[in-house]
Amino acid sequence: MRRSAALLSATVLLLAATAxxxxxxxxSAPVPAAPAAAGSAPPVSPAPPxxxxxxxxxxxxxxxxxxxxxxxxxxxxxxxxxxDFRAELERLARENYVPITAAQLxxxxxxxxxxxxxxxxxxxxxxxxxxxxxxxxxxxxxSALGILLDVSKAHPSFPARAxxxxxxxxxxxxxxxxxxxxxxxHGFEVGNxxxxxxxxxxxxxxGVQEAIASEQAEITKAVPGTPxxxxxxxxxxxxxxxxxxxxxxxxxVAYQHRGVYLVGSNPAPSPFDASFDPTAIPRxxxxxxxxxxxxxxxxxxxxxxxxxxxxxxxxxGDPDHVTFPxxxxxxxxxxxxxxxxxx
Length: 343
Fold this sequence. Notes:
Blueprint: E1 64-67, E2 69-70, E3 79-80, H1 82-94, E4 97-100, H2 102-107, E5 117-124, H3 144-154, E6 163-166, H4 176-185, E7 189-192, H5 205-222, E8 230-232, E9 247-250, E10 253-256, E11 259-261, E12 284-285, H6 298-307, E13 322-324, E14 340-342
Parallel strand pairs: 1-5, 1-12, 2-3, 4-5, 5-6, 6-7, 8-11, 13-14
Antiparallel strand pairs: 9-10
Helix pairs in contact: 1-3
């Protein structure tokens, strides 16, 4: 499966500067500061380091990694062994990547430490190898979720944060409602992948809206009140018109997505870059350095980003501004000039 050549040319979803108080799925709740002792000054958070000292570039590329099935015996390029999956997460942690959700990417509210690099972990098809809960309701250690939690525990600077794009009856062996409830409760994002993994280009406008809205209804029934902000296109294929991937309504169920994700083969631009299109965000398939189409896979791309660190997103530790080398100023989206902090 290759990235579809279809590009969205209709309605685009505008990326607005996000208020500092905004919280998105997957972000942690604010922790109240301990009260200051009587007569003492309130605690002051340390200022972030000088941008140049961490080579901050918040206009750099962000890898959006795509996972499907974990299997001891991979049957396709979309499968990875549990050991390979763990090794990739360990690599990301060692190289100072910090996971954010798809919704955090498109909100432009990327609050990660200075010097860290943003990465988005996405899971398609809601397979049982991704999320499997034991009889007590805890993730099993051999599931993708269990492995992610274990790596995060070993690397506290690598939080367990990801987006799961689901179809009908997700994670069925654990009970769909129970599994989705666990994810939402623990700060993960649940996104839409259509009810039956439909090729949206083969459907008329009504069919596209039915495929998306029906899955939206399943998600909100399982986890009431949870916003569904992100859509992953099955096969990476756009509907016609492409605006139907962003918003629509059928049978009283309306949907509105801040981000639409392709299959793709390359890192995504920064959400602050003028080239960023939230309605067609590329992703990178998790894959080893060799094999079918390995040049488009995660190992090769992570190697490239490691060899060209100036080209990847590196945080300045100040989410209220967009920090970048002065030489990159021409790439900043015009709407974000007021937040710019070039150096």
